[in-house]
Amino acid sequence: MINRICIIGVGLIGGSLARALKASGACKEIVGTSLRAANQNSGKHIPGKQSTGNQSSANLLKAKQLNVIDRFETEISVAVKDADIVVVSVPVGAQDAIFIALADCVSSDTIITDVGSTKRSVSDSADKYLGKLSTNFVPAHPIAGIEKSGVEAASGDLFQQRRVIITPTENTSKIAVSVVQSMWEKTGAEVIKMDIDHHDEVLAATSHLPHLLAFSLVDTLSQLDEKSEIFKYAAGGFRDFTRIASSDPTMWHDICLANSNAILAVLETFTRDLKKLEQAIQEKDSQFILDVFVRAKKSRDTFCNEQL
Amino acid sequence: MINRICIIGVGLIGGSLARALKASGACKEIVGTSLRAANQNSGKHIPGKQSTGNQSSANLLKAKQLNVIDRFETEISVAVKDADIVVVSVPVGAQDAIFIALADCVSSDTIITDVGSTKRSVSDSADKYLGKLSTNFVPAHPIAGIEKSGVEAASGDLFQQRRVIITPTENTSKIAVSVVQSMWEKTGAEVIKMDIDHHDEVLAATSHLPHLLAFSLVDTLSQLDEKSEIFKYAAGGFRDFTRIASSDPTMWHDICLANSNAILAVLETFTRDLKKLEQAIQEKDSQFILDVFVRAKKSRDTFCNEQL
Q: CATH class for domain A198-307?
């Protein structure tokens, strides 16, 4: 059993992890803290774009009241004291700030992990700011999430039968990997190891690009003259297609910047193929259009049958 | 009460209409027939690209066995005999063939309507092939549908609290409009009149473009080297985003060709905006990215709150 876990950023993912670990009896005490606590306590200049994430003590109080965490601390050094594991659960653009703060106050016995959707950026950030502690850092990404955010949406079932990808390097402590793997397995998830850059490429295609397209489409439509009618006559298909455009803008802004290379590469491929489809419609190339749609339906149906 | 309705193409939409009308007691007898019956009986050369829709007598037999229709006929002239209303429920690319067949065998008392997702093409086709009967034709489009197709998926509840857009012209018989409106209201739908080309523009944005993007994205991803992993690590967001890529390829192929002008126009606007977002990611223009995502989330949340 884990004695104490500190979760930095008790939102949907951090809160769901806390609920799952409490429900499974895997951890004696869960302490919550926030990005703001890290920022206030680091006392250092934090480079790069700051996330607009607003994990304040009001949010931590709510997490305590909802019984998601056992207690919360607004001093990062107090929050991480004697923690076996520190889980960084903030938008990926805020990870630099967290690592800078942690470098000053985390013991060398403490294992650090994260839940970010991009792994190259966080891995580089950990190497840069955690110093010797970086061997205790295990980059992790639970492939779970809904368009809702915030601790109110947290659920202990969120990771059941989902996958968690971890991307340790050859420098990562084997014990740390084992502890993080075991923690996620307690939530009902399957843990899979993957190369850092390969993770970022796969997720750019399957998650980051779809979010980008959904946000972009809804924004385009919302600026058309007929926008009120467009939304009025939208049916269930549109609702499903655009669900991910209701996701947290800050989180996805951070992902776009943190994984920009992989996202731009797959976006270029998509745009090239979309252009071909556009030309086929212009030229009334019936067979081309039908071929694309038939292949897509077959892939999508196969994917869903395998998942269900 | 309607005495007899003939439905040409008893799939998801035609079958759901039949079920709804039977459930509400709005119609004494529902006769099913098929595109194949129309093709076999018209005996004329049918111009344009033929739909690959395969509404055969096996499908009609299934519809009868499922009690969706009261009887079926494989001779189009027998099927439409003494029908008060003929509902054309085939992929929009097959409407020419239907109208050619109907022109020879429908009485001048019979009202004709359709359920197609594009209205300019069907309206022009009716004018061209129905001759004098075209004043009895009321173009209609129920804004309802799921990614499933076929009579097995038909449900009498499909149109409950949904909208049906009708696009009559000044030449359309007022009685015909009134009868078609009343028929749809019996299914629980709200009927709204709209200009033909305006319908096609609004639907291109809210329905046709999203389908195009979903088909195109899934096809692109399915051809990447990492395709098996991409689908393996896809989560709920991807499943929702791509649900419409499981729709009937023939139906959507036909829609893309029938409404190509409006689709190409809104696709161009979308592509232009997507290019700006791509540039912003390349240039790490944080504010631009965040602004797009915040606007999109706001629009999507507002749309969903209004719909629910």
A: mainly alpha
Chain B, residues 72-131, CB within 8 A of chain A, namely: none
Q: Which residue among A145, A234, A295 places its CB closest to the CB of B222? A: A295
Domain spans in chain B, listed from the N-terminal domain onward: 2-194, 198-307
pLDDT, tens digit, for every residue of B238-291? 888 999 999 999 999 999 999 999 999 999 999 999 999 999 999 999 999 999
Residue in B222, B282, B286 closest to A299 by CB: B222
For residue A262, is pLDDT > 60?
yes
Q: Which of residues 39-58 of A touch B (CB under 8 A)?
A: 49, 52
> Smallest Cβ distance to B244: which of A219, A237, A257?
A237
Query: Is B220 close to A270, i.e. CB distance below 8 A?
Result: yes
A153 burial (CB, 10 Å; 0-12 / 13-18 / 19+) is middle
What pLDDT, on a 0 to 100 scale, did the predictor assign at position B231?
85
**Three-state DSSP state, B196:** helix
DSSP string across B20-36: HHHHTT-EEEEEEE-HH
Per-position b or e across B232-250, b if 16+ CB within 10 A of its CB: bbbbbbbbbbbbbbbbbbb
Read off the pTM: 0.89
What is the ipTM metric for this complex?
0.89
Q: Which residues of A touch B249 (CB under 8 A)?
A: 290, 293-294, 296-297
Burial of B50 (0-12, 13-18, 19+ CB in 10 A): middle
CATH 3.40.50.720 is right for the domain spanning A2-194: yes
Could you tell me which chain B residue has the CA closest to the CA of A268?
A: B278
To probe the interface with B, which of A148, A219, A224, A307 has the most B CB atoms within 10 Å?
Answer: A219
> Would you say A58 and A16 are in contact if contact means Cβ atoms under 8 Å apart?
no
Tens of pLDDT, residue by residue over A15-68, are 999 999 999 999 999 999 998 877 775 554 444 444 444 447 889 999 999 999
User: Per-residue pLDDT tens for B16-35?
Assistant: 999 999 999 999 999 999 98
